[in-house]
Fold:
Amino acid sequence: MFSVSGLKENNTTVSTEILAGVSSFLATAYIIVVNPSILSQTGMPFSAVLTATILVSFFSSFMMGWYANNPILVAPGMGLNAFFTFTAVFTEKLSWQVALGTVFWSGIFFLLLSVFNIRSYIVKAIPKPLRYAIASGIGLFITLIGFANAKFIVANPATMVGLGKLNVSTLTFLAGLLITVILLIKNVKGSILIGIVLTSLLAWPIGRYWGGTETVITINQLVAKPDFSLLFQLDLVNSLKWSLAPIILAFVFTDMFDSLSTFVGLAEAANLLDENGEPRNIQKSLIVDAFSTTIAGLTGSSPGTAYIESAVGIEQGGKTGLTAMVGAALFLPFLFLSPLISAVPAIATAPALVLVGVFMMKPVVKINWQQLDEAFPAFLAMVLIPFTYSITQGIIWGFLSWTILHIATGKTRQISLALWIIDIFAILALIL
Structure:
């Protein structure tokens, strides 16, 4: 747990931790806008999802700081919100109430795995190339969503997909994307958030002074009371069905891999390691992550996860939980700014989605593309996620093809018992 005395032990100060917390928040704050813009497509009220996003981000980040004493912010995860909207609701035809229920049960399952340390066996069962491929595939999926939201890529009956019309809206999106990339290259703090704001300002004249048949941005008021209408609206009974087990497990596995890779990556980069060389307070951190997913289902959001953007604050000198607690507190004022935030158009958040895809492609270089029995399943998982518009399908075919190829090449011993069990769930997901 966090204690003031720990500041001296970690060779840091209160002022350093506050600056680090502000820096991490600026790097993470884009989720306040992006998460509601994705989840509200399911029919959930934008303002209510905004409230849920902030509640999850505040409580989870605060717990990460106070209980796990790690300088890592936790908020609804990119990729997880896409899975919630485009797979659970759109593809599997679940109501958003049932989808929230699957989020809750995945949080409970994740919590049990973390408390009893079963996660280590599951993680070891998943081949690393598939982990890298799934992360990269989700990145491609998010990028596709960003381009589609900006109408830069549209449906085409002749070629399935095609380039949209270059009009004032798509040109504004491209300008925002270019601005955001330049800010990131120049290492400007809060680049993505600044990019969203600047793109929104560029979009303000659309429908007023140039192009477009309707006004893109309309602001009637700046502040409003928080919208708690999604609180406890999840369907706990209908979401706990055997047919929905693949959805729940997909949430669990995706969240777990994302969190573990984040914890390991940040711990190695910032030397946040224990005496055994393992990420500091990893079990407590995973418990907080599971707690975040559980409260996400209760409040009305997709699962929460540790944010790699916390590296910005760590680079500023953040070493203790005070960094996370400061970042958590900065989320709260946005509870009252839902009218202002809801005015942010899709073409302003689309550049952030495209760039998140860029960041998530990093693990692909770790795949051994010369070894086909590893490369092919990884490639299949990676491309099927965006091509089928389903993270679940990418994961299923990645696992099954890995197992089949290793059996065919006489490498059956490399298939663990846990992976056999995962394969059984994958097959059941296809036939049920």
Notes: The beta strands are 74-76, 153-156, 160-163, 304-306.
